[in-house]
Design a protein that fits this description.
The chain has 118 residues and is mainly alpha-helical. The chain has one domain (2-116). The chain contains five helices and no strands. The chain has helices at residues 2-15, 18-34, 40-58, 68-90, 95-116. The longest helix has 23 residues, at 68-90.
Length: 118
Amino acid sequence: MAGLLLSLSGWSQQKDWKEYRDFYDLVVLILHPAEYGELNSVKDSANLLLEKAIAWQASPVPSRYKKAEQIKKGLIELTTFCRELQDAVIQKKDDEIISLLAIKTHNKFHAVSGRYML
């Protein structure tokens, strides 16, 4: 029960960080379908995902987060992964490569939002 309360508390705090929410909204629309082989959203919107990653990375970490340095480092890595994903789309790489990059990006998002921000 305590774990659930901590998780809900963390989610409540995350909702207040606009750039986080903006990126999260795209994760749901772009990266989640990619896990099931649906790559059209990735191919159509990888540039938007990168744009939101850059905005999130550039935004200040709210003071309530105790792991600010880890968050910033994770956001640098997340932005790099989004750039790699966009480059693969632009270069019309094989769907398997795009899928793997989408999964890698999605996993990094969860590392930042789950491990560092709670």
